[in-house]
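Minutes, structural biology subgroup

Action item carried over from last meeting: produce the structure token record for SAM-dependent methyltransferase (Rhizobium pisi). EB confirmed the sequence was re-checked against the source entry. Recorded below for completeness.
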Amino acid sequence: MDYNLYHATTANKILNVKGKRVLVIGCNTGGDCTYFVDLGAKEVHGVDVVDGIGRDFKHPRVTYHQESAEEMKSLQSGYFDLVYTFATMEHVPDVFLAFAEMERVLAPGGAIYSIASPLWNSRNGHHFPQYFGDYPWAHLRLSRDEAMKYLVDRKIEIAAANESAEVVVNYMYVDAFNFNKRSSRDYAAATSRLKGLSILADNLDREPEGAVPADIMRELEAKGYHDDDLRAVTHCFIAKKPKRWWQAFA
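Output recorded by EB:
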């Protein structure tokens, strides 16, 4: 299943982007921008901090901005009809600032569609389930060196896209900018501050109770983690900014 396409089309059902202005937060090399061009958006703007921003998709209706979601200085307030972000917020250091910025740049009558997953404290918060599938919550239970030893001892084959076991563990532990390491509670707290929006969804999707094995729960409780946070996989936030009173008659 193409989750990127699924979420882009779902967002379009909430706010039809044809002829509208769309902001894609966490656009990376440009892939997510293609969906909104295909859906007929008048303008698509992509924001990301990566050096390769937009390199894989150039289009006259697409503009890229290399800056943080927490401080989108080049973007004017109340400009975008849809603010869209998928599998990005778990990488943004300050989710409070980022959500506030989304509200700021959103036009009256516009919508925010934000899906953050997997959250850091969840089973696969390290983003590498293909390598640690039989060692749940590996990133919370193993040190960097222990994770490296785990991969090497089991002769786990690393995909070419991930280069090597060392690159994988460095991504998980050393390169601090890759993950915000935030509790699921922070997402809920951040969105609760957005007072100028009509909330359609503000959910933490969790694994069922009992999903954390008792021995692992004891191990992680000793480190200060809580069951509800360990089971929280996805934060879904969908909201609209009410139209100004005169727009209701347009």
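Discussion: The mean pLDDT is 95.
Next step: EB to file the record with the rest of the batch.
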